[in-house]
Design brief:
The chain is mainly α. The protein folds into two domains: 97 residues, RNA polymerase sigma factor, region 2, helix turn helix motif (Rna Polymerase Sigma Factor, Chain: A, Orthogonal Bundle), CATH 1.10.1740.10; 77 residues, Orthogonal Bundle (Arc Repressor Mutant, subunit A), CATH 1.10.10.10. It has nine helices and no strands. The relative contact order is 0.10.
Amino acid sequence: MAAVAIALELRPTTAFNGHLTEEVLDAQRGDTKAFESLYRANAGRVFALCLRLAANRDRAELLTQDAFVRAWEQLHSFRGEAAFSTWMHRLTVNLVTRSLQTQQIRGTRESTREGFDELPASTHPVHAESIDLEKAIARLPEQARIVFVLHDVEGFRHEEIAEQLGVAVGTSKSQLHRARQLLREVLK
């Protein structure tokens, strides 16, 4: 019986709050099969988040790959205080927002209304059911889209968004207002 207790002490299956699973522990020890399992369980959600934030399928695929590379590199820092999927989500948001900020700094920022003119005009009768909301969100100006997705889709507070984007809370609120206003124009 003592040997069983010692074996269990050497290989705990949960952290103090139950989020450090055997699979995560194995991946932290370098088990690529365990990490592959974590990848398969989370890849779809991470890709969807990247796609919403980046509004470009090719870029979202690269960002998804980057997110999992970063997760592998930072896996030792995962302490199990939240579910792995929650940690992965936060890591992905941070990676994508930093990537988009770097892109802006390099001068590749797009025009604030570019692509938005391609949406159905409000002068044509359009039923809300026929509008592809994902496409409308993807065509929002970059900052407005990011704030909209983080706040209205992912549930972040303005304070968290402001911190992640390095902007004032008021800027986050105004970008959300702008995004909602532009989407309302499309849905008229």
